[in-house]
Amino acid sequence: MGAERDDEDSDALTWAGDDERGRDVDTGPRRRAAKRARAGAGVDDSDDADAAEPDDGAGPADAAADALPPATSGLTLVSYGILAGVYGIFTIGWIVSVLGSGTTLGSLPAEIMYQFGEFLAIALPALWFVAVLRLATRPSRRLLWLLAGIPLVLPWPWVLGQ
Amino acid sequence: MSGEESAASGTGARTDPDSSGSESGGASSRFWRAVAVIALGALFAYDVWEAVSTLIVLPQFYDAIGLPASTVPWWLLIGQVAIPPVAFAGALLLGWRRTLPQLILLLVVALAVVAALSLGAVALEFALRPAVAGL
User: Is the CB of A135 less than 8 angstroms away from the CB of B113?
Assistant: First the structure.
C-alpha cells in the first residue's frame, strides 16, 4: 500500500517526454533517498550517481540537490535543464533535417563520409552538452559554453527550411 | 591536406617538451596523443578537401545554369574552407593540456561542429541561390 502510493508519487513527478530526452525517469528512489538524507538517515550510493549527472531536469534535480553538497545552486540546475531542453530540440531538428534530405553523392567513399557527417551533426548537440559538463568545472563557465554553443549546434538546414 | 597534417605534427613537436612534465605516461602517452591528433586531423583534412572542391565546382555550376558570377557566395565558400582548420586549432588549444580522452572528446566535438556547419553552409547556399527559370 505504501509502496503503491510511492509509485503514484513518482508518476506525478515525472515529466512527459523525459524518456525521449534520455533522462532518468525513475524519480521514486531518488526522491526517497533525498527524503532519507533530509531526515538524517544518511545518503546511499545511488546519490553519488546522481551527483555525476548535473544535466537533470529541474524538478527531480531539485529534490536530489537537497541531498547533495551545496556545490550547484538551484538556479544553475534550472538553467542546465532549460539548456538541455533546447539542445534536445536541436537534436530533433537535426534528425528531421537529415531524414528529409535526399542528397546522394556519386562515389561510395564520398557517400560514406557524407553520411558520417550527418551522423555527427545529429550527435553534435548531445556531444557539446556532455563535453561542456565534463570539461568545464565552474558553473558560470559551463553556462557560457552552453550558450556559446547554440549558434554552432543549431540545425541550420532545419532553420532555413530545408 | 598535407599542410593540415604537417601543421598537426608541427604543433605536437612544439608542445611536447612542455607536456612531458605533466604527463605521467611519458613517451608512450605522447605517442598515443600524436596518433589521435593525426588520425582525427586526417578527417579535418578531408573536410578541407571537400570544401575546396565545392569552392572550385560551385562557380562552374552557377555558370552552367546561367547565373552571373556576381551571385556566387564567395564569402560562404571561403568560410567553408576556413572552418575545419579553425575548429581543429581550437580543439588542440583547449585540449592539449588535458588528458588523452578529453583531447579526443574535444577533437570529436570540433569535427561534429565542422560537419554541422558544412551542412548548414550547403543549406544557406541553396537558400541564397537566386531562382533560375526551369530549375
Answer: no
Segment 66-105 of chain B within 8 Å of chain A by CB: 94, 98, 102, 105
Distance of CA B101 to the CA centre of its chain: 20
Pick the residue from chain A with its C-alpha nearest to B103: A135
Q: A91: buried, middle or exposed (CB in 10 Å: 19+, 13-18, 0-12)?
A: buried
Which contacts (CB < 8 Å, 24+ apart) does range A112-115 have?
A113/B46, A113/B50
CB burial of residue A52 (10 Å; 0-12, 13-18, 19+): exposed
- Cβ-based contacts of B116 with chain A (< 8 Å): 94, 120-121, 124, 152-153, 155-156
Cβ atoms of B123 and A160 within 8 Å: the answer is: yes
pLDDT tens per residue, range A62-115: 544 455 455 678 888 999 999 999 999 999 999 999 998 877 777 888 899 999
pTM, whole model, 2 decimals?
0.67
With beta carbons under 8 A apart, name residues in chain A contacting B108. 127
| Distance separating alpha carbons of residues A16 and A129, to the nearest angstrom | 21
CB contact B3 to A (< 8 Å): no
The length of chain A is 162
Regarding an ipTM greater than 0.85, the answer is no
| Average pLDDT for runs of 10 along chain B of length 135 | 41 42 65 94 96 94 89 94 97 93 96 96 90 61
* Residue B26 CA: distances (Å) to CA of A6, A44, B21, B101: 54, 39, 8, 16
CA–CA gap between residue B82 and residue B19 (Å, rounded): 28
Between chains, do A124 and B127 touch, taking CB under 8 Å as contact?
no
Cα–Cα dist B47/B1, whole Å: 9
